[in-house]
Amino acid sequence: MDIGYWIFSGLAAFWIMVPAYVPNSAAALLGGGTPIDFGRACSDGKRVFGDGKTYRGFFGGVLCGVLAGLVQIWIWSSFGLTALPHHTLLSVMLLAAGALLGDLGKSFLKRRLGKEQGESWFLADQYDLVIGSFLLILLVYPQWLFENITLPIAVWIVVMTPLLHRVVNIIGYYIGVKEVPW
């Protein structure tokens, strides 16, 4: 494979992941209000998810991810970008919802392990959105996943996700949306 193919695969990976990348940042911006766990604790006495996971953040984040995906669909069809992977309404909905479901799953596990809200959890903090979005799309729309995720695209997703995660979190910290820069 030549270098051009790998560079294009990086662009395709980013294009594929936009509907999954947008929801976490949007949830942080739009969040607040009623926690998804309503303040309840599990049998271990620890919160189910914590105050940082709210209905407004979850649904606002998913909506923003879907809107970003709809813009991609419009761009793809309007400008004939047929070389890039093609999103569908279902794929963007699953990627967006899966990203935040992955974040919820990670928060649940963090509480069980005694980690506090905002406490760094190496790798889990970076890949929860990828695991959640890919698991959901695998369960509901596997043909889209297998048609669009090639080995080079998967490698790019693994490499770019923690880098983007770090940059976005630092920006969020400096603009006052996040309490910690990770």
Task: Offer a few descriptive terms.
single chain, mainly alpha, globular, 182 residues
What does this structure look like?
The protein is mainly α. The protein is built from 6 helices and no strands. It has helices at residues 3-30, 55-78, 89-112, 124-140, 142-148, 151-174. It is globular, with a radius of gyration of 17 Å. The model has no long low-confidence stretch (mean pLDDT 93).
Briefly summarize what is shown:
This protein is mostly helical and 182 residues long.
Question: What general form does the structure show?
Answer: globular
The share of residues in extended strands comes to under 5%
The low-confidence parts are: none
Topology pattern, helix = H, strand = E: HHHHHH
Oligomeric form: single chain
Number of H- or I-type helical stretches: 6
Q: What is the residue-mean pLDDT, rounded to a whole number?
A: 93
What share of the residues lie within helices? Answer: 55-70%
By secondary-structure content and strand pairing, the structural class works out as mainly alpha
The gyration radius over C-alpha positions equals 17 Å
Q: Count the E strands.
A: 0
Distance between the termini: 35 Å
SSE diagram, text form:
Elements: H1 3-30, H2 55-78, H3 89-112, H4 124-140, H5 142-148, H6 151-174
